[in-house]
Predict the structure.
Amino acid sequence: MTSVYVTKVQYGIYVIYKLSNTVELRQCDSESRWGIDMIKAVIFDMDGTLVDTERLGIKAWKAGAAELGLAIDDALIHQFIGRTLPDVMDILEAHYGSGETAEAIYHRHKEIRDEMVKTDLELKAGAAECLDELLAAGYHVGLATSSRLVTAERNLKMVGLFDKFETVTCGEDVVHGKPDPEMYLLACERAGFAPEECAVVEDSRNGCVSGITAGCHVFAVPDIVPLPQNVVDGCEAVLDTLFDLTEAVKAVR
């Protein structure tokens, strides 16, 4: 009896066997194939989780607004965290009452931020180490970021992380950005695992809600804005740094 290949049907794991002139589909016990770990894939947010871009963003938004003679406060900027570009533009237009103003402040902020990234981009504590640990332990490692692919690739290549990801899902891949679950549902699909077999690693409320409502195990590493208690309650764990992530993921049974 020769195993031909493995497939998944509605999140069940099956092995297709070739038996002389017939093909037989047999369901495979998950633990016998993957071991006892419940989590098979770990999917990371980027901004504020892997790289410290949120603080650069705040500086860029304020500098860009000041150049245009506009006021922008932390409360407004915090609404952008974890959101896709279309969502950010909608928030800006609603706030300033002008699509033209929204476009102007966004583009000047982006120019300033892109220059900052060249010299000031830093990894979050434990980012490189936990990725290496998870890959060595056999977990699928994916990326799910509200940033566009060109930005994610540029930022993560600068810090040597981009090539570590086996699957990548970006803002332009979805219609509804975080906190909608669409991004993490797509990321799970691309990874080849059911949401309940996937861990999500996030820093923001929007990202955590996206992962929670997708049905994933969410591990939060809060960054700039503290998480509300109802979001904390929905997380598998809230960690101080990514140095704690691998053991926390392994502990889920």
About this structure: Strands lie at 2-9, 12-19, 22-27, 41-44, 140-144, 167-169, 198-202, 217-220, 237-238. The longest strand covers residues 2-9.
